[in-house]
Every structure is written in structure tokens, then in C-alpha cells.
Amino acid sequence: MKIYNTLTRKKEEFVPLEEGKVRMYVCGPTVYNYIHIGNARPMIVFDTVRRYLEHKGYAVNYVSNFTDVDDKIIKKANEEGVEPSVISERYIEEARKDMESLNVREATCHPKATEEIDGMIEMIRTLIEKGHAYEVNGTVYFKTRSFADYGKLSKKNIDDLQAGHRDIKVTGEDGKKDPLDFVLWKPKKEGEPSWPSPWGEGRPGWHIECSEMSKKYLGEQIDIHAGGEDLIFPHHENEIAQSEACNDKEFARYWMHNGFLNIDNVKMSKSLGNFFTVREIGEKYDLQVLRFFMLSAHYRSPLNFSAELMAAAKNGLDRILTAVDRLKSVDGVDREPDAGEVAQLEALKGLCEKFDKAMDDDFNTADAVSAIFEMVKLANVSVNNDSSNVFVKKVLMTIVEYCDIIGVITDKKEEMLDADIEALINERQAARKAKNFARADEIRQQLLDQGIILEDTREGVKWKRA
Ligand code: AMP
Ligand code: ZN
Question: Which of 54, 241, 351, 369 has the fewest CB atoms within 10 Å, measured from its CB?
Fold first, then answer.
């Protein structure tokens, strides 16, 4: 199996540190709002990487953090007049719901930065002891030039960086000895969350959070570290500097980065305002469609979000789900597979190998999905009520199994869209007005069957998913 390693800019054969095991860390979202579908891209692609590694027989220890202390969280908390933890807890819960709807499996562990402060302080202390960091008036900086390999991931030359930094002064960072140095610990400001430390009350810098959480939950050396390509510099470059300077070991063997999800060829981002939340998309589409859309492209390529491409993804997914539904209802014959079926099963095996070959080549999900479409075609052409039950079952199980490797659910009823639920609620209201209580009850029951619970309140009808 080959993985494109950003560190070497090459596809490399994957060899884990420990046979049969994979230690993987994926940088998670900063939780100050609903996640947008750009944030969902790394979640979906690296969940798919994890699923495939497990399909290959690896035991995967998958860690993905929540960044729950950050300027943006504090700003939002001040706007709402609540504690920052109220904001971060709220959006962690919402992010978890979105991940579930996208069929992104829970990580082995989802650490929160605010619960790991002690470990961060320990790491910073070690960096100071080893001469890689220094404190000035309650701020601790990493001494970038003390780490000889700085720039090895982003391929940036330290002297070019120096030139670029010459005129940039960041307020509150006057004590920096070198403009290249970056913050490990910053002193408390009024109205901000803070923790005690040997350098006074304060909070950690963003980069040290991931270095520490990765070390604590996966060890000093890990196999795969991943995130969106905007994290290569400075976040991942700084993580490498901190971790390797602290632990004297290579930090991660393989660095994986997903390309951007764009709108009109511009990166989707909160700051530009050109984003859709996962929640908004979930009102228009089954979120399985979003997952399928993301997997239609290679994870390293940029991907443009558009209604046309979502429609194409929906068609493709429907083709698979319809075939699975039909296979489930086929009433086959109790007999051994005949020669024709044996040949088809051989062809099916070939398609499984084709899927694996595509995924072995740096997770080429687009080609893997094509292999699934070929399985569907084989099913549509060769399975009918005259088929042997053994054959029907094998074809069905294979399609379901391979869809599951890319996280596509085949055995669940499609969730009702919000718009359809609201239309039914309106119809029920109209029926009640017309005193057609039988119809009104029927609609209530119909919604209940779909897991939608209605509540008649003074402000009108409210609904929730069971
Ligand atoms: P953030 O909350 O900004 O730290 O982002 C969380 C994750 O989403 C990181 O891995 C980012 O690289 C990734 N990300 C943010 N925006 C996009 C985008 N438009 N396309 C792909 N990945 C993104
Ligand atoms: Zn990170």
C-alpha cells in the first residue's frame, strides 16, 4: 500500500512502526460554530483511510482533537455573554452530531485541548530545559532556529522566512528574540480563560496542543499525522519542531493532507463567508450524498462544490442503493451456484481486487467507487429470481461490505429531509383546521414511523428526531 507523504513529496510504501498497528492523529476543528462542509472533508477522507486500513487488517488507534480554547471561541463567548466553555461544549456536541450524520466513526479518542493543559506545560518545560524555548514576561516562545530541520515539511527555507517576517510585528509579542519564533504559552488577558503555569497564569499556543495530545494518546512517534493542506504551514511545521525537539525522535512517519473544498474555485472558509454548514446541506440532501460526493474526487485534489456535482453524486448513490434494495428482495432458488454464477463470482472477486488496488494507490477513492459501480452492474445484469440463493447473498454481501469500507450506508432507511417533515406538519395543521382528525393522526403516526416526534406547544408545532 502506498501513501503520498507530504514530507518527501512522494508516494511511499506504507510500513507501520509496529506490525499490524497504526497510530494516526487527525487535527480536528476549532469549535466556535457549526462545522462547514470544508471542515467535513478531512473528517470524511481520513475516516475512509481509517476504514480501509482496518479492512487491510490493521488495528488503528485513531485520535482526533477538538480545539476548545482559541481567540474565536472567546470572541463568540463575549458576544453571547457566556463562558467560553459554553460555546465550545455546544459546538463539540453539534460537531459530533454532524460527524454521525456523515457516518464518520468516533475516534478511539477525541481529546479536548483544555483537558490536557498539564501535559502541554510539561512539554514546554522540557523545551525550555533543552534550550529550544525561552520565556519573556509570561510569554514562552519556541526558538525556531534552534531546530535544524525547521521547514522540512513545508519546504520553506528559514532565511526566506526571515526576510518575509522582517516588517511584521505582532502586538503583544514584543519580547521575541527572533521574528521566526512562535508562541508556546501566552499570558492571561482580562476576560480570557487561563491556567496556572510556571510562567504565570495563561493559556497554550495552538501548535503545542496537538504535539501534546498526539504524544499522550499515541506516543512519541506515530505513523500518520493528517489534516487539511492549510495546516502544513505553520501548524504542522511547528508541531514537528516542538515534538522532535522535545522527544529527540522523528514525530510522524507519514504526513497526509487533503486538498481544499472550494466554491467557484475559492477555498470555502468561515472568514470569507463563502461556506455552507453541514447542517444546512443536511436540510437539502441526505448527508450520505455529501460523503459520496467527497469520495468522488481524490483526497489531494481540489474539489469544487456545486449543485450539479451533488446531483451527480445523488444519482450515483441512488444507483447503488436501488441495486442493494433489489438484491434484498430477490427470491432466489435453493441450489448450488451453476457454472455461470461461479464465473460471475470470479468476476466479482476481480472487482474487489480492483477496489483494493485503487485504494492501495494512495486511497484513490474515485477508482474504488468505479469498482463498486461495476459490482452493481454485475448484480443488475446477473441476479434474478432464478439465481441461486448462495449467489444472490454473496453479491449482496460483497456490495454492502465494500460500501461500508468507504462509509456508505446501504442498510438504513433514508432519513426524511427537514423540508418534507415541515410539509407534512403543515398538511396536518390544515387537516386539523378542517376537523379531519383521522388524517391528522395518520400524519402524526407516519412521522413517528420515520422517527420524528411532534410536540404541540403554545408557539406552534415543534418536532425532533427520536
Ligand atoms: P479549522 O477548524 O479551521 O482548524 O479546520 C479544521 C480542519 O478542516 C483542518 O484540517 C482544516 O485544514 C480543514 N479545512 C478547513 N477548511 C477547509 C476547506 N475549505 N477544504 C478542506 N479542508 C478544510
Ligand atoms: Zn493540529
Answer: 54
